[in-house]
Design goal:
Blueprint (H helix, E strand, L loop, with lengths): L4 H19 L3 H13 L1 H11 L6 H23 L8 H22 L18 H21 L11 E8 L6 E9 L4 E9 L3 E9 L4 E7 L8 E9 L6 E9 L7
Antiparallel strand pairs: 1-2, 2-5, 3-4, 3-6, 6-7
Length: about 260
């Protein structure tokens, strides 16, 4: 891509945006980096590869760039559902970066080799006030859409629910992990009761926000004579006498090693 400065800048911007979107812990900074990475850079690289040295009017090029970028996002969604790691921020960033660099490389190959000693004059389009306002509004809408997609939106007609699960923490089964996952519309308070055998019972108040998961570890006493029955029961705080969720498991007798 040497000599094609626009493609070099696109690849450099894609690398920076991908690193920021995948590694920076601040959400607002990650969203700001994700906007060009998802809505502009893939389309620019692919349109450049498709049309090579053909000149396109700036409005037509911008429409193609945004439209192609949206199509890339849709296709990436289907592709990232196939592997085991699935849809994550890192997988999105890496896949988009690969697509952008590959398309930019293809565009550089298809373009005519630039002259070394002659520089083409640079002419930037002068947008009108109306088009600049529309572009600014589109950018604000895109940022707001990405921000809202990270948060659950309340729905008056939707019924929320919460899930309860329990698994041993290791192969020796000396403790169990009990988790509460909330898919409610609002924050909910629960009472979690874990019974280990017939003698021990542990109670805990659990408050979870929409989309949040809380996991607790409960120790299981050593057992050499027989199995131990572990029961986890979840009660809504406003209905303490009615079990909402319940899971149970029989832990086998622990093996003793000489």
């Amino acid at each position: 891509m040497r000599g094609h400065r626009d493609l070099e800048r696109v690849c450099l911007a894609a690398i920076v945006c991908a690193l920021v979107a995948a590694l920076v812990p601040w959400e607002i900074v990650r969203i700001a980096a994700a906007v060009p990475l998802t809505l502009f850079l893939p389309g620019y690289a692919i349109v450049s590869a498709a049309f090579a040295s053909r000149e396109l009017a700036p409005p037509k090029r911008m429409v193609l760039v945004v439209g192609v970028s949206l199509m890339v996002l849709v296709l990436c969604t289907f592709f990232l559902n196939i592997p085991s790691f699935g849809l994550t921020t890192a997988s999105w960033a890496v896949l988009l970066l690969i697509i952008i660099i590959a398309a930019a490389r293809g565009a550089a190959i298809r373009r005519e080799r630039p002259e070394r000693h002659r520089r083409a004059p640079i002419s930037l389009p002068r947008p009108t006030v109306g088009s600049a306002a529309m572009l600014a509004a589109a950018f604000v809408i895109a940022v707001a859409a990405l921000a809202l997609s990270q948060r659950p939106v309340p729905a008056d007609d939707a019924d929320g629910y919460s899930a309860l699960w329990m698994l041993p923490t290791d192969s020796r089964e000396e403790a169990v992990a009990v988790g509460v996952i909330s898919n409610e519309q609002d924050s909910e308070a629960f009472r979690l009761r874990v019974e280990v055998g017939q003698d021990e019972s542990k109670n805990r108040r659990v408050v979870v926000d929409p989309g949040e998961e809380r996991v607790y570890e409960v120790d299981v006493p050593p057992r050499s004579s027989g199995r131990t029955h572990v029961v986890a029961t979840l009660y809504r705080e406003d209905r303490p006498g009615h079990p909402y969720r319940r899971v149970s498991s029989w832990l086998p007798r622990q093996k003793t090693f000489p």
